[in-house]
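[SOLVED] Need 3D model of a four-part complex

Original post:
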Amino acid sequence: MPIDIKTSFAFDLDRPTDLLLQFQAAAIPEQHIIDSDTWLTKAQHIANVPAQDAIGERIWIRADGPYKVDYTATVEVNRKVADVSGLNRLDPHDLPGEAVEYVFDSRYCQADRMHTFVDDRFGKYQGGEKVAAMRDWIADNFTYEAGTSDAKTTALDTFVERRGICRDFAHVMISFARAAIIPARYVSCYAPGVSPPDFHAVAEVFLEDPDLKGGGSWQIVDATGMADPAKTVKIGIGRDAADVSFLTTFGISSFRNSTVEVTETG
Amino acid sequence: MPIDIKTSFAFDLDRPTDLLLQFQAAAIPEQHIIDSDTWLTKAQHIANVPAQDAIGERIWIRADGPYKVDYTATVEVNRKVADVSGLNRLDPHDLPGEAVEYVFDSRYCQADRMHTFVDDRFGKYQGGEKVAAMRDWIADNFTYEAGTSDAKTTALDTFVERRGICRDFAHVMISFARAAIIPARYVSCYAPGVSPPDFHAVAEVFLEDPDLKGGGSWQIVDATGMADPAKTVKIGIGRDAADVSFLTTFGISSFRNSTVEVTETG
Amino acid sequence: MPIDIKTSFAFDLDRPTDLLLQFQAAAIPEQHIIDSDTWLTKAQHIANVPAQDAIGERIWIRADGPYKVDYTATVEVNRKVADVSGLNRLDPHDLPGEAVEYVFDSRYCQADRMHTFVDDRFGKYQGGEKVAAMRDWIADNFTYEAGTSDAKTTALDTFVERRGICRDFAHVMISFARAAIIPARYVSCYAPGVSPPDFHAVAEVFLEDPDLKGGGSWQIVDATGMADPAKTVKIGIGRDAADVSFLTTFGISSFRNSTVEVTETG
Amino acid sequence: MPIDIKTSFAFDLDRPTDLLLQFQAAAIPEQHIIDSDTWLTKAQHIANVPAQDAIGERIWIRADGPYKVDYTATVEVNRKVADVSGLNRLDPHDLPGEAVEYVFDSRYCQADRMHTFVDDRFGKYQGGEKVAAMRDWIADNFTYEAGTSDAKTTALDTFVERRGICRDFAHVMISFARAAIIPARYVSCYAPGVSPPDFHAVAEVFLEDPDLKGGGSWQIVDATGMADPAKTVKIGIGRDAADVSFLTTFGISSFRNSTVEVTETG
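Solution:
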């Protein structure tokens, strides 16, 4: 069942400014881009560069004045989705090199501060069951509430304040997993069912993959409960939200508006 | 002129524990490992994995009881060292994909909080001159003082408290560079002249390389003034200190001691 | 030359809620309240209690629905204003008991983190000259910019970010003074010349008073440069902004608007 | 049953330095000082000043070289101790002026960040029952562990890290109470049963006093469970630990050692 995506956002620049955009569905094996169109306001410079871990692309722009992005895509998601509770954790010493950086702390995910809590609360669970218990605990104890967090809000802040948006839920989920030495990363994505419709973010954890002898694979975990992993279209990944904004302005921009529509076509 | 390295460190584990070690000179084009020997206490599991950006290796260990690491190496450094003041900055939109993550914030480097200061203080300088001005400002305004910082200390803390060790100086340098949208990363290294002798850390910034038409390369910047870039032996790199510790214990270890000797043979 | 004050603010409560108001010119020796009128929406409970250090009053309200406060006053300020640069500091051991709490850290003023900076930058100055140097340094290095700080912003944040509003300037000034062991407190006030017109805040420092053999008195210091100490009408004082808000709601209120007019009558 | 106190602490100063000491049992109605002796190394200047809210005294010292304090006291505690669970809370608008500052945030107690958690977790309890539930929750969820916190550690840190010492337990208890708009303050004290024997700290909350028509009184709450309120000898009180250290050095001191013995004589 393909997913239809329609995005538009606009902003103003009052001088020539460098921008980084990352809003397109990533062309990766688990996602087949059936069709996609991107309209960008003309600019002095436009160049695509591979994004983190070669998942998706970033677009460098140098532009001035009003700027607008329109994007439509139809994507078939072929992701192998497992029930995380049924998966084992890989022992740290079995983690492949490329997963290691995702057990380390990052800008918004201070896992080092949460070891005692994570051991006390989730120590009795193993592997994927632990991840599921973390996800459920966040869902039970946090309120999804727009306007209660901002770009400075970290997982530690959210853990104390017990509220936030998808970005904040993902940061706490990632921090908990890393505190249990399970690699976890941040995924910006499109997903049907997100309410109100907007760019979405979820966590991904690296657990043993029964199909890969001794190896692991990434599994989506959404503590907000809004996204279905089987229908989530990934844009890009990173250590946390610092790495995958749909718009990073290296200068000053005035944001005008954005719309996001994600629907299942049947 | 080869650099001789002799390192030893020991710690105790009171149960089977996973460890990550990263202490060996990285085998990279700019460093020729003439000779090296590593002695590790026997362990249940030992496996090498590539480290961040394939610079150097990490060693996964699963061990129990007393553990000891001994390492000697002789390394010829063939690094092309430039005077950073003479180099240009690449415009953000000309940065290659792999350098982009190093303009983003990380655990210990909150560049987003330092834009106003960096613009006010260093706005008049361009490119490598700006980097040199940042380095000199840190050298002038910070006191190198062991025991004033710990594993929680961030660039923001150090900026306020005006003192710390190599790790803290590097974090501030990296944050300043990123606030000026110059990619910057953290380098753990061995360097003669470090006093007292110890593992060392410096920053690296990505600036235009006159030999690479429109491309850039990484240049070492040490705000402590202790390391000579031409004689610095890199172990590994990362976003900041969260990524490249010589010893990361996934559990509890009692550190016993470490010694580091780095000398120029000639 | 009397100061005319006209204030109005309104907010909505959607259930019976307790409020603390503190907006009236304090009746203290240095201020003669020539005339004043306060209109409060009727409420279930209204009671005045003395405010911190008996300077001014707080009003407890229990109310519901739309609420409005109107206040006018004409105040003659008879404050003895000294040029702080000409005053001596009292040695810590000569501080009276009631001034001691104002050398300690408070919610928004982490003076303990700023000792090294304050010693390095202002160590060469003594007493009131040191205070003046701090005030001038803040004025030179910080940008007054509404919307860049919020209720969570501390002196440490502002010191890093180099911008903010009167509240933030006062917090940094207070922290610097305390780091030099000069008692400093936060003063909410009305002052002509504040632009845009609004409730204002300044710091006060406790320095030797030449008229009081071995004793000290409080002197207003405004790092924003907007308030003239001789024309500043104090509302109340506290350790920092946590203690003297004009409106503290113990529950949820929707703020509608406020206006403040302060003029010199001639 | 009198309490015997025996304290000694020593430190070195390498130049003439101002100090503030606060280690003596407070002479307040609820504590009868049967007998007490204080020996202080001779100093250039020694002066007593009243401590916060006139509870106990602080001693200003100006001294140089080795310094030693010895103190013995026998104190009869006549405190009226109530079971806090049986007490009502005063409505905010019924709080007397002098209790108001203790609902505000302070250096180590960021109650403003904990409203959501406190409402979610303790919202179902009223008055003193709420205080008891907070105390029990802290006792159940936090580990008493020396060396896990330091002078920078705040209630927010401790809430995340779930461990600390008496100071940290008191800071979290105070923050929770204030988030529920119950005045709470920090009490430094001597108490038998503290293990290992040391200076101790507890919280005090302001609740309705059945003997005072509509008024309130302070009740000791110790989330560590070590101190019996009926046998706790108060030294002083403050907003938090920033206000009541037994030794505050305005300069540099090398701490040598301290001993504290508190016993019930029978």
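Edit: DSSP finds five helices and twelve strands in chain C.
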